[in-house]
Write a structure and sequence with these properties.
With 385 residues, this protein is of the alpha/beta class. It has two domains: 191 residues, 3-Layer(aba) Sandwich (Rossmann fold); 163 residues, Glycogen Phosphorylase B (Rossmann fold), CATH 3.40.50.2000. 37% of the residues lie in helices and 15% in strands. It is built from 14 helices and 14 strands. An eight-stranded mixed β-sheet has the order 3-4-2-1-5-6-7-8, with helices on both faces. A six-stranded parallel β-sheet has the order 11-10-9-12-13-14, sandwiched between helices. It is globular, with a radius of gyration of 21 Å.
Length: 385
């Protein structure tokens, strides 16, 4: 039976999800919680055609705003969503901090519970200039101070919030079981001949913080295992330069974004080795999806990735580490590694579990206990400055 509690989901492009971690989160929360809450999701009319703009999706009301959900407009997009939600919502779930400058005003309406997912320390991403970083740090401070509850998606982010703000946040990771293994069909084998053999795979935004240059440097030196990377190569000079440099290597295939889930999951779920180079953020959706697909993981050695994989994956910090793995690949029990990743994902990264934790956050009035950690943060995460 549906609850009378009205929950507004703010800060995504919208539903159904087309791309992005927060969009997938909103999408899955609707599917999981539609019988427990009266849901409203805010969406950007710029991201959905007129035919796609339905007033309701899977039992949730969808409110379309005339602003873009990303970039500079995201600040006003989130603020406008909050103002509208004040008219009806019992709970606001705000995904990201860019619009949280409005929270001091929102808190003048104490009957509305505000929950903020602070994402993966967005201000640390290399793509932001100094002014943008300062704005995001300020927005983060406002969010942590004025939200009724803070959600973090990784224990390292949880510790960061506690160490820097003295706030005990609620740890809720991401789900991955929407990503299902797909056997290789004749259709895709014709399109992608490499599916007939062994290959390494990576899908990500083509940004320096995802260490694509490090991965490509290592694989260029060793042709024993073909490498396939899917990403937005033409989005930046960084991507264009890498494609121009490495397109001549026959064993390296650099593909443009793939938006068809079946096609992408065919490539992901049949790879010999999944390479995850993300260095920023918390629990990364593409990593937990690869784990759920039972892929052996070679991840960039950063605290977030070690926590997500429970220290049981393979790790690299520079190109020579990848080269060492490739040179000794036969010495690793990749089947056992894949099974370990799958077991972790089955225990931790299921949407039913994630949705229940969000539902508990929305309905709980209890004070969270102070978490205890058995690790130290790297120095660059010890203070938001």
């Amino acid at each position: 039976m549906k609850s009378h509690s009205k929950l507004a989901i703010i800060g995504t492009v919208g539903v159904p999800a087309k791309y992005g971690g927060f969009e997938t989160l909103a999408h899955q929360l609707v599917l999981q919680l539609r019988n427990r809450f009266q849901l409203t999701v805010y969406a950007s009319k710029h991201s959905y055609s007129e035919e796609e703009r339905t007033p309701e999706w899977e039992g949730a009301r969808v409110v379309y705003l005339p602003l873009k959900a990303n970039g500079l407009q995201s600040i006003f997009y989130d603020m406008l969503s909050m103002l509208h939600a004040l008219l009806f919502a019992d709970v606001m779930l705000v995904l990201g901090v860019s619009g949280c400058l409005l929270l001091p005003f929102v808190k003048l309406f104490p009957w509305v519970k505000v929950i903020v997912n602070v994402d993966g320390l967005e201000w640390r991403r290399a793509k932001w200039n100094g002014l943008a970083k300062k704005f995001l740090i300020f927005s983060e401070k406002i969010a942590v101070r004025f939200a009724d509850e803070i959600i973090t998606d990784n224990a390292a982010i949880q510790k960061y919030v506690l160490d820097n703000y003295g706030i005990a946040s609620r740890l809720i990771e991401y789900g991955a079981d929407h990503a299902q293994p797909v056997p290789v069909t004749e259709k895709y084998q014709k399109k992608y001949p490499f599916l007939k053999g062994k290959y390494a795979f990576k899908v990500c935004r083509i940004e320096p913080e995802n260490n694509i240059h490090v991965v490509l440097e290592a694989f260029a030196r060793n042709s024993s295992l073909p490498l396939v990377i899917v990403g937005n190569w033409n989005h930046s000079e960084y991507g264009k330069s890498l494609r121009n440099t490495y397109c001549r290597y026959e064993h390296i295939l650099l593909l443009d974004p793939i938006f068809e889930p079946e096609e992408l999951n065919t490539l992901r779920s049949n790879c010999t080795l999944y390479v995850h180079g993300h260095s920023a953020g918390g629990t990364n959706p593409s990593l937990v999806e690869a784990m759920y697909l039972a892929r052996p993981i070679l991840a960039f050695d950063v605290v977030y990735n070690r926590i997500t994989t429970q220290q049981k994956a393979l790790y690299f910090s520079e190109a020579k580490d990848i080269s060492k793995v490739l040179e000794n690949l036969e010495d690793y029990d990749l089947k056992e590694l894949a099974a370990t990743m799958k077991q972790i994902a089955d225990n931790m990264y299921l949407w039913s579990r994630i949705a229940n934790l969000y539902a508990d956050a929305a309905t709980s009035s209890r004070r969270l206990p102070r978490p205890v950690f058995d690790f130290e943060l790297p120095k660059n995460l010890q203070r938001a400055s």
